[in-house]
Amino acid sequence: MSRIVGVVNEQKNSDRRVSSMLATLQSSYTPMGVVSLEWNHYSLKSDRASLGWLGWQKPNLTETHDIIVVVDGCIYNGDELGTYGTPAELIASLYREYDFRETLSKINGDFAIALYDKQERTLWLGRDRFGVCPLYYWYRGDSFAFASRPRALLALPEIKPEVNRRFVALFAASHYRTFDNDPHASPYAEIRQLPASHYLSFCRGKVSLESYWQLEEQPEWEDSPQVLAERYQALLLDSVARRLAVADRPAFTLSGGMDSSSVLACAVRSSGSRQQAFSTVYRDKTYDESEEISSMLESHVEKWHPIAIDVPDVFGLVEQMVALHDEPVATATWLSHFLLCQNVREQGFGSLFGGLGGDELNAGEYEYFPYYFADLAMNEESDRLDRELRKWSEYHDHPIFRKSPEIGRQAIARLTDPTIPGRCLPDRERLQKYISALNPDYFNLGDFTPVMDHPFESYLKNRTYQDLFRETTPCCLRAEDRHANAFGLDRFVPFLDHRLVEFTYRVPGHLKIAEGVTKRLLRDAMKGILPKETRQRIKKTGWNAPAHLWFSGKGREQLLDLVRSQSFRDRGIYQPVVVETLIEEHQTAIICGNLNGNHMMFLWQLVNLELWLSNLSRTPN
Q1: What is the Cα gyration radius of the chain?
Q2: Annotation: CATH topology of 225-361+473-536
Q3: Where are the domains of the chain?
Q4: Can you point out the beta strands (E) in 24-149?
Q5: pTM above threshold 0.85
Q6: How distant, in Å, are the alpha carbons of 21, 145, 374 from that of 157?
């Protein structure tokens, strides 16, 4: 992958600004000091526009006739689209034959594209269907600028580093699922984000924004489970193989779950050889998956690289991360991923594969159960609903997070709207758990209601769609992007191949969840590819990090120093007394082993927000 930037300006001074943007991005990677990467930058300009590319590989930009193109990303179906050199050259060729929208619709890839048509004096921007590659923009009058990271845009004197106050409030006192509810917004007041599966045109001061692809209601597959499993397997194998074909020295993340294991196993099947795998492991067994990972090692892994994480320097690492992210980092999981990417590059690998998207496509999260139950209730499948509730209780009951048929029915009533088929409701309890910690004079979150899309008549499909485009996936893709680029890695997410996504959204719910077990069709599809132990494991730890330990002891003292600082209080974002109470409750919970008092997510968000704002205050503009 790489970074792209550009400026269109009728006053014809765009090239100097693009040079400044590229220099700002390049300097942001220098402090990493982990590997010796040769970052190169190039730019192409016309009389009114200048487009730039920054990366460590072959430059992905071209100028042909009256067209300039820069690309961040990869195209996986180039063999179907004709002979070409770089993705940028392919885009230029397709654009001359089709319009920009049709060009995007023909591509299977992960990309952010900018194309300037000199003759039409029009800039086109396009982003892949799921937002694997980021793209931000700003415009005012006849000036327009775009970049892969906000930092590059902030290098322009016209753009002030003022924060988006709603974003700050949500990060301070809500759940990470709310941060990306508006796919057009960014953490900065003046900077917009091009949503996934959208394209934009800028011509003579006018901006037009449209979608070129979307998931829509389609008839569910009526084929037998065996036939569907075979089709699923073929699609996933092809998705992995196409990405392997362009990957440089690939390595694979490996957790104890189905998704990363399936990607790794498909790579072994496609390549005919075992692969290198990296995992984060923990002394605290709450989130350690070493035992679950072991079933993959002998048959599929050439060498396993466990990265042990105990109690890291959270404040120091977050300082580095927010400087690379240009924003606070959503969850503590990504600190572990940051260290994993560092280790991958130090070991000499050039790309990293992962299982992101598998939960959304296959209804793999525990929280998807109530929505499947709601579908059964809506369809009056009472016998199946009773059986599923019993199995859910049997397999997934927890001393803290209790499961029972009655609790399941209560969840249906709380999380779904019975009057509109498929309409899911916000989990108000979760979203507003920490709202008392927010200073209402800074921003009033009391009226915040997240957008809940419902393009389908199925509650389960709509819930997973919500995660794919507005909740879990966007922040994960963003974190993967920032970390991979920081360490000079390409990264690949085979589950987010649009053919596979379109296929899985036509799979009936009972082939995703059945008898209290998630990912049923994927489990069948992986027969003969995954070890039986991995394929049939019911309970999942979930890829997470023991951040509850990071904010006790020394971490607690650092937290208290932060929230008692004058700069923290002067920001006026939090209610300091409430925050200190939560810190003490968390410390007590760790000592007593009481998970109900565990506030690690809130505390992680607080540290990230404060360190980002401190970093931002030092940003020259």
Answers
A1: 24
A2: Rossmann fold (3.40.50)
A3: 3-211, 225-361+473-536, 367-469, 547-617
A4: 40-45, 49-55, 61-64, 67-75, 109-117, 122-127, 136-140, 143-147
A5: yes
A6: 11, 12, 52
Cα distance between residue 308 and residue 295, in whole Å: 19
Q: Evaluate if residue 481 carries a pLDDT over 70.
A: yes
Q: How confident is the model at residue 621 (pLDDT cuts 50, 70, 90)?
A: low
Average pLDDT, the chain: 93
Q: CB–CB of 134/149 below 8 Å?
A: yes
- Scored b (16 or more CB within 10 A) or e, 348-374 reads ebbbbbbbbbbbbbbbbbbebbbbbbb
Q: Which CATH class is domain 3-211?
A: alpha beta
End-to-end CA, the chain: 27
Q: What is the pLDDT of residues 552-569, one digit of tens each?
A: 988 999 999 999 999 999
Reduced 3-state DSSP string for 470-525: HCHHHHHHHHHHHHHHHCCCEEECHHHCHHHHHHHCCCCHHHCCECCECCHHHHHH
Length of the chain as a residue count: 621
Contact 453, 470 (CB under 8 A): yes
Say if residue 429 is exposed, middle or buried (CB neighbours under 10 Å; 0-12, 13-18, 19+). exposed
The alpha carbon of 557 is separated from its chain's Cα centroid by a whole number of angstroms, namely 31
Nearest to 297 by CA among 278, 315, 282: 278
Q: At what angle do helices 600-617 and 165-173 cross, to 10 degrees?
A: 150
**Of 6, 219, 224, whose CA–CA distance to 122 is shortest?**
6
Phi/psi of residue 461, each to 5°?
Answer: -65, -40
